[in-house]
Amino acid sequence: MMKFAPYFAYAKKCFLGRSAYRFDHLMNIMSTCLQIFIFWGIYRALYGGNTEVDGITLPMVATNFVLSMGLGAVFSVNDYFFPDKIHDGSIATELLRPISVPGRMIAENAGNALFNLIFRFAPALILVVLTIGISAPAGLGMFTVFLLSAMLGYGVLWVISFTVQMAAFWFVNVWSITTIKNVFVNVLSGSMIPLWFMPEWMVGVLRFTPFSSIYFTPVQIYLGQLTWQEAGLKCAVQAVWILLIYLAGDFLWKKGQKKLVVQGG
Amino acid sequence: MRDVIHLAGVYTKITAKSWFQYRVDAVLRSLAVFLRESTGVIVIYFTLLKFDDLNGWNTHELLFLYSLLFLTYGIMIIFFTGLRDFGNTVRSGNFDRFILRPRGLLFQLIFANADWFAAVGHGGLGLVLFLVSAGKVGVTWNLETAVYYLVAVAGGVLIQGAVFLFLATLNIYLFETRSLKELLYYNMRKFAGYPISIFHKAVQFIIIYIMPFAFVNYFPAQYLLRKEDMAGYPQAFLYLTPVVGIGMYLLAYLFWRYSVRYYKSSGN
């Protein structure tokens, strides 16, 4: 039986630690809103007078941006959790503790995510709903599935980061790899260009990648674009991605520990 | 004067050497910056495969608009890295060392460091976008347009340099200005990648009069492309880029000169 108390403490510490930087915080909210406003401005101009393009209305596009960028603001993943610890050698003390290190990362990120949800997503959402408006969810049942799918989306984002971070065992500097990973996530997850408008061949390629599982699946469910059956299937796909990528990451994590050499002491 | 040029040359050689000490890493980092900044470009490209134009601007014209933004930043950061990181220099007390040296402070700050990864990443992207788009946007490249273009780039470099100098000077009075720079500069720059006419009037006001990115890329691009949405702005704006650049830089420089006298070290 695993004990949850230490993980809960890590999560709480992170949550409270975040409350200290108020100005930074305000800037983050602004930055999320500005990003949404930019894309809203672009799509309003792109639509011109049209009410819909390919069956997609402007409010649906707005909802896609608000949800994916809003969730993006909530989904806190520390891309440098492992690289920092491997770089300065503190990974050694982490490994001696009777807790799982990835478990600690989950706990810390979850604490952050909760903070972001309450103090970043909520204010940004209110501001955005008041100014540009978004579609209502497709019923209470679907909204529940959306919540589940959003959490799975966070899981996919997390395992991708976890796996990429393992590169730190083999390379001194992982900043470049991490940055390139984030370019892929930003472009292909649909948070900057709704995947409805991606060229057909690109959608075909995307079907074999985990990126659309992060934000686009929850958005589609929220908008009621999927039947119950399809929604269930998509959630299962999300879960499979989490499992597959996690297994790859865990493999590297075990392998990395074997070759780990910490200098000095 | 010759001595100054010589010193600038030595400084440049040293910074380039130290940034490119680890070659593979340097190439990877420049590539990462290049790709990170391409995100917006890739998004525009895919979006316009579906929609034909953005308020009358086609893909190549939008890439041309973007190219000015990156090219000017790439050039600017070669000179102004020292000012971008000036907050750290002040907090760590390193600025005191600069003061003791027998050369101008601004001279040292400008030449003693250069973020070559950012320069290659941003500048390279700007150059690629320019080469891709310049032949396809219907501009006749002759002496007049070429001179206009070069002057506009120089003006754009000065405008952004002035903002960095101004924000750096604020560090003498305030402890932390990073968030302010984030808000004023980096967030506003995200708007400047697109024709500003598509945005709310308040955003346009900020981007013309307060953080004048419009003079870095929108108005210079308009002079060369003459899109219809220029009708909403005074024609004179097409020619103001160098004036805004020199004016802003002079103001920022005076502010700097005035403030440096009041510098108090953070050390003991």
**Overall helicity of chain B:** over 70%
Give me the secondary-structure category of chain A.
Answer: mainly alpha
How many domain regions of chain A?
Answer: 1
Strand percentage of chain B: under 5%
User: Order of strands across the widest beta sheet of chain A?
Assistant: 1-2
Helix share bin of chain A: over 70%
Structural class of chain B: mainly alpha
Largest sheet of chain B, described in full? Answer: none
- The proportion of strand residues of chain A reads under 5%
Morphology call of chain B: globular
Overall shape of chain A: it is globular
Question: Radius of gyration of chain B in whole Å, from Cα?
Answer: 19 Å
Compute the average pLDDT of chain B: 89
Number of helices of chain A: 11
- Give the topology string of chain A: H per helix, E per strand: HHEEHHHHHHHHH
N→C terminal distance of chain B: 35 Å
Which characteristics define this entry?
heterodimer, A: 265 residues, mainly alpha, two-stranded antiparallel ribbon, 11 helices, globular, B: 268 residues
Helix and strand topology:
The complex is a heterodimer of chains A (265) and B (268).
Chain A: H1 5-18, H2 22-47, E1 52-53, E2 56-57, H3 58-74, H4 81-88, H5 91-96, H6 101-131, H7 139-165, H8 175-188, H9 200-206, H10 216-222, H11 228-259
Antiparallel strand pairs in A: 1-2
Chain B: H1 2-19, H2 23-50, H3 59-84, H4 86-91, H5 95-100, H6 105-111, H7 116-133, H8 143-173, H9 178-192, H10 201-210, H11 218-225, H12 241-260
Helix pairs in contact in B: 2-3, 2-7, 3-6, 3-7, 3-8, 8-12
